[in-house]
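Thread amino acids onto this structure.
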């Protein structure tokens, strides 16, 4: 372990420039988001304590479809007028009833949304911006303690700040950036206790507190907790008292989390139920994801390996031994536990994307930074490395957003019919529409079974509306979609709207006679 020296003004300036570059990249990418992503919609409804309300509303509408003003749906993404304490308590209740995640991040998101004038695609990034800056500072501080050179720590910071998974993790309204902050703090505590000859009581207390907060932020923090425990055992097996105390602190944090939030036990059973698929295709899918996702820590990872092998080995400077054992242990064990849970069908099928490795990326960045550092003194190699490190992030910024908003023209229509009510999809569309637009939201089977809504529809035959449809969501189907279209064709001229929106089809409902209005 190193005793970090004071930073020079030049070093502080370079670090600030790296953090600002990361801020700019994230802000630019967040600005490309047209429609609030699926999981973000759910995060906002949980944080604003409206998820229960949404479920109750769609249940009532499914039993008896009726017309509502769009402001009803838009308001579900904003905090209500109730006092903050009551809203936070309701947020926890919403999670326990209708979601599988722990509460810490959503309580923070509630506070952020109260401070913003509106909820939108940027809100997730704004909730994470403070954690991004904190993570950059913590990562550099950790590098100063673990690595032989402050310059290597700076390289690690650059790698992490512009990496595509890091950028994508920051701009969503989820808990992964916060979890990375808690993870980096935990590793700093490990570095602190490992550098001392005697047992450090403060470190033990911090281990317990951070484990508690991390567990109540996201289940996946347990993978890092397990990696920390094994690393302590490997490094300090000759000091059983220290190992036992750290184990008690980490285990105690988990048990206290279960006592404070017992819904975690029930929710973990739901996660396992989602992961019960066991077939050859799914096994191959998980194997591919496990191997592919770490390499997506950027294309630069493979390019950098090629760069190192081609140039560094030729000069005898590929110093694998210069990386601290603690860092090797944490990177290897953290990934091993994540991969074991994923390949063991404990984690859900989707839980191997970039965001799910949020605690791994900063540590891997420091490891790569130390490997690259021996060549940093040679300008040609340094500039080549900077280009390879930054290239994937630049390509990401120029990549079109995969989640486009609804057609702009439908905001001018007087009403909209949606034949689905999925909580992560419909509110994102409603958010882009005027508050006074009339909406009819119910599954196809409900719209076909209950025809009372058609009475008001018959009075709208002289105005223009929208029908947005899905043949795949819920119990919807092509045949039901065709039946519903026949019903609408009896009153309107139904014309498809050309628009790419991930499985949704948009139709303009024109007046059957006379010009559209």
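Threaded sequence (517 positions):
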């Amino acid at each position: 372990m190193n005793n970090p020296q004071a930073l020079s003004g030049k070093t502080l300036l370079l670090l600030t420039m790296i953090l600002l570059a990361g801020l700019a990249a994230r802000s630019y990418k967040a600005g490309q988001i047209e429609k609030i992503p699926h999981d973000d919609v759910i995060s906002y409804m949980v944080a604003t304590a409206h998820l229960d309300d949404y479920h109750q509303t769609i249940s009532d509408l499914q039993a008896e479809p009726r017309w509502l003003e769009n402001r009803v749906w838009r308001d579900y993404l904003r905090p209500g007028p109730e006092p903050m304490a009551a809203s936070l308590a309701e947020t926890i209740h919403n999670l326990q009833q209708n979601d599988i995640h722990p509460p810490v991040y959503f309580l923070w998101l509630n506070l952020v949304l109260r401070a913003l004038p509106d909820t939108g695609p940027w809100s997730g990034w704004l909730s994470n911006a403070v954690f991004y800056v904190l993570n950059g500072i913590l990562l550099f501080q950790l590098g100063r303690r673990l690595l032989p050179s402050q310059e290597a720590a700076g390289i690690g910071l650059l790698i992490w700040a512009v990496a595509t998974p890091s950028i994508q993790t920051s701009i969503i309204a989820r808990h992964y950036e916060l979890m990375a902050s808690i993870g980096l703090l935990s590793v700093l505590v490990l570095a602190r206790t490992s550098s001392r000859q005697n047992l450090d009581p403060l470190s033990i207390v911090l281990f317990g507190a951070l484990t508690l907060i991390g567990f109540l932020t996201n289940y996946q923090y347990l993978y890092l907790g397990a990696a920390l425990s094994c690393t302590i055992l490997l490094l300090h097996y000759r000091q059983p008292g220290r190992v036992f105390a750290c184990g008690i602190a980490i285990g105690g944090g988990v048990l206290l989390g279960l006592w404070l939030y017992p819904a975690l036990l029930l929710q973990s059973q739901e996660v396992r139920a989602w992961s019960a698929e066991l077939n050859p295709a799914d096994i191959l899918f998980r194997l591919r994801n496990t191997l592919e996702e770490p390499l997506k820590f950027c294309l630069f990872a493979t390019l950098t390996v090629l760069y190192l092998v081609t140039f560094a080995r030729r000069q005898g400077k590929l110093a694998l031994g210069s990386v601290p054992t603690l860092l090797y242990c944490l990177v290897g064990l953290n990934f091993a536990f994540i991969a074991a849970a994923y390949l063991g069908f404990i984690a859900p099928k989707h839980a191997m994307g970039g965001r799910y490795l949020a605690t791994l990326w900063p540590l891997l960045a420091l490891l790569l930074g130390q490997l690259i550092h021996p060549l940093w003194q040679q300008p040609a190699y340094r500039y080549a490395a900077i280009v390879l490190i930054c290239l994937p992030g630049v390509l990401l910024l120029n990549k079109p957003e995969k989640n486009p908003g609804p057609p702009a023209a439908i905001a001018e229509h007087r009403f909209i019919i949606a034949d689905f009510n999925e909580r992560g999809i419909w509110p994102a569309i409603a958010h882009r529409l005027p508050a006074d637009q009339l909406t009819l939201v119910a599954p196809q089977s409900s719209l076909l079974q209950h025809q009372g809504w058609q009475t008001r529809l018959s009075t709208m035959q002289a105005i223009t509306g929208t029908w947005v449809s899905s043949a795949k969501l819920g119990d919807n189907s092509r045949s039901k979609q065709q039946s519903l279209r026949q019903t609408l064709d009896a009153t309107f001229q139904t014309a498809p709207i050309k628009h790419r929106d991930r499985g949704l089809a948009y139709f303009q409902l024109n007046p059957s006679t006379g010009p559209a209005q």
